[in-house]
Structure formats: C-alpha cells, structure tokens
Prior knowledge:
Blueprint lengths: L1 E5 L6 H10 L3 E6 L2 H9 L10 H12 L4 E4 L6 H11 L3 E4 L6 H4 L3 H25 L4 E7 L17 E8 L2 E8 L7 H20 L2 E7 L1 E3 L25 H10 L4 E4 L5 E6 H13 L9 E5 L2 E4 H12 L3 E4 L16 H5 L7 H13 L21
Parallel strand pairs: 1-2, 1-4, 2-3, 4-5, 5-8, 8-12, 9-11, 10-14
Antiparallel strand pairs: 6-7, 11-13
Helix pairs in contact: 1-9, 4-6, 6-7, 8-10
The structure holds nicotinamide-adenine-dinucleotide and sulfoquinovose-uridine-C1,5'-diphosphate.
Amino acid sequence: MKVWILGGDGFCGWPTTLHLSSKGHDVTILDNLSRRQIDILLEVQSLTPIAPLSVRLKTWKSISGKKIGFELINIADEYDKLVDLLKIHKPDAIVHFAEQRSAPYSMKTPVTKRYTVDNNVNATHNLLCAIVDSGVNTHVVHLGTMGVYGYGWSGSAPIPEGYLTVTLDTPDGQLEREILHPANPGSVYHMTKTLDQLMFAFYAKNDHIRITDLHQGIVWGTQTPETILDEKLINRFDYDGDYGTVLNRFLMEAAIGHSLTVHGSGGQTRAFIHIRDTVRCIELAIKHPPQPGDKPRIFNQVTETFKVKQLADLVAQLTKAKICYLANPRNEAAENELIVENNQFLSLGLDPTTLNDGLLEEVRDIAERYKDRIDRSKIAAKTLWNKK
Ligand code: NAD
Ligand code: USQ
C-alpha cells in the first residue's frame, strides 16, 4: 500500500513510518520539522540523541534496503502543494500526526495558543479539503486523543468508542439517536482535537471520505523493534516541562535523583499505551478502513489506565526515587475515575505491552543511558493554565 505519514519525523510518526516500511508498505513522510524548531525555541532537546531526518532515512535504507520518501511541507499552510502532491502520489492511506501536541505548550502564551489552533485546525481542514479537491480515493487515519472526552464527566461509566446512544423525550414519544460523545477538552490543544472530530463528521457525511479517528491515550516508551536497530534510528524522548509526558518525566527524574513531580494529589487517572502498540494499532487501522459513506470509525487507542500517583509509586519502587507533591499548574480535576472501552483493537488482535513488561527496559536502556543529556533547568513545569 502507498502510505503517507503526516508528521512522520515526530515521536509517534517516526516509529510508525519504520514499522509500516518494514511491513512492505511504500511510505512517504510529509513534515515541516516544526517540532525540531520548537525544541530550538524552548532551548531543550530530546533525552535521546535524535539524528537529522536525512540521516535517519539513509540509515534505514542501508539497514533494510527500503526507501522512505520525504516531502518538506507545512500542511497547515501550503495547500496548493498538498493538492499537487496528492495528485502525483495518490496515497491509499494517509496517517495524520501533523499537529502541535503538547497541552502545556498550547496554554503557554497567547502566541502558542493561537499557533496551536491555526496549525492543528488548518492542517486537518487542509487535508480533508485537498482530498476532495484532488479527487484522490484514500483513507485518513488521524491521531486524536482520549482528552476529547474529558475526565470525570461520566463518573465510573465506561467511555465508549466515540459514539453515545441517547434517548430524547419528544411530544411524539422517545427518540433514540447516536451522537458523538460530548466533547470536554481540558486545554487549547485538546480543544483542537474536538474541532477535528466535527470536521471528520462533516467530510465523511458530505464527501464520503473514509476516516478513522484514533482516540489515543498518553504514549510511553521509546523504542520499537525498528528504531532499536541502530542508534541513528532512535526515537525522540521529550522530558521538559512542556513536552515531557508524565511517565517519561518520572523515569527521567528518577535517573538523575530528582524527586518525581506529581501535580496535586496525583489522583488524576489517565489512559496509557506503549509506543510499540501505537504502531501496531495504526497498522490495524489501515487494514480495516470504513466504507465510503460511513461515519468516521473511532477507536479508543489505549491499553491501561493509572492514577498519576500509582505511576509515581511504581517508578519509586523500581528506582528508590522520592516523590514530591506539587501545586498543580493545570486546571484539571484533582481526582477522577477512568474506565475505557477498547474492545475494537483487542478484537482485531492487539496484544498490549503492559507497564510491567516495559518499565524496567525504559529505566535501564533509555533514562539511565542518556541521563547525562538532561538539563535540570528544563524539568520544572512552568506553564500555568490561568492567572489564578
Ligand atoms: P510530535 O510533536 O513528536 O510530532 C508531530 C510531528 O508533526 C512533528 O514531526 C512536527 O514537525 C509535525 N508537524 C506539526 N505540524 C505540522 C504541519 N503543520 N505540517 C507538517 N508537519 C507538522 O508529536 P507526537 O507525540 O508524535 O504526536 C503525534 C500525534 O499523536 C499528535 O497529533 C498528537 O496529538 C497525537 N497523540 C500523541 C500522544 C502522545 O502521548 N505523544 C498521545 C495521544 C495522541
Ligand atoms: N503530570 C504530573 N507530573 C508531571 C507531568 C504531568 O503529575 O511531571 C500530570 C498532569 O497534570 C496530568 C497527567 O499527568 O494530570 C498527564 O499529563 P501529560 O503531560 O502526561 O499528558 P497530557 O497533557 O494529557 O498530554 C499527552 C500528550 C497529548 C495527548 C494526551 C493523551 O502530550 O498529545 O493527546 O497525552 S490524553 O491525556 O489521553 O488526552
């Protein structure tokens, strides 16, 4: 299959690119390298030493014999180029990772709030509009987020995979309707993902574009069977206060004897998935497209849920790190329950990597190995959700 990976130089996109290439797909990355640029602006770098994209691609070619294409393009801005490329390549599937993905970065300043909305909403809309414009028959697989549902909204009821059946009382009796699960974003970033959902619903209905939206939890872990083949293929690992996600930050903190930075009481429950499972889920999603005219197919791409304090306890047990409870810089519920339905991927054959399987490997092979690259001044989470 001819597959495009929008955002294929990023944390999820790079291992997905390699995985699909290793499976024999003809893969091309479309990326504007904005994530690398943001690192320069924030004066941070990945814990792991990521190679320039041209070196990554050359290394993969020499190891696997497979060529991966690359187009430098801003999906949110270069619409005509996107249409031209679609007409030339005619990809069978397009995996869309190309968005600004950090919630703290999206809440940092008016500039980063507006950038996140401009970038994410325009990237998604340009893609959908360009597919219609070019007449290309393709399947869009988008990386959305569990955060579109919000946390704690439905108490202990399981979160369904995208849609909710509701019953309305009308003068003519009860009406049953299936609706998109109500959106309840917790940051400007998460808000853009809820807007993406509406665009998908519209273009699937109006233009019969085939769309799969993957509501992914927090991705942890670094390596996949392909990125581990050579250090020049290594995946990125963000640890700084804006881009580092919670478990990766705890592992990095433990490696240098820093206390584990739990926000608030640590009662926030979140959903998680290992990067190895992310790439497998995307392969499964590509293999099982919806039909033209179907509503977007939504999967919850998660394998486990944990409270933040449970994660801190686990890492502390493994590494003897201390835990500190900090005032929460975010505006989020102090405690929430989270039960998530994920039967669709399990029934398609996903065999999850659990925290018990992978945590030690992360401590040993990533956090310990690269700890000398950590800049302690970049660890604190300084972005506040509001002035209060
Ligand atoms: P990332 O920032 O590492 O990668 C995103 C990539 O997209 C980067 O290479 C960046 O340069 C590129 N990009 C951004 N805007 C672009 C544009 N306008 N044109 C071209 N390229 C552009 O992020 P990630 O962690 O790999 O996340 C990928 C996707 O998965 C995001 O949409 C994110 O919302 C979603 N997601 C990530 C996680 C996670 O824990 N990392 C969890 C759930 C969902
Ligand atoms: N947290 C801490 N200490 C830290 C960092 C985070 O306690 O040092 C807490 C946060 O306050 C939050 C939780 O951990 O309650 C998760 O934060 P996070 O930064 O790990 O994840 P989040 O901001 O939700 O965003 C990440 C990705 C995003 C993706 C999302 C999936 O950056 O792209 O969409 O996970 S989800 O959370 O399921 O919506």
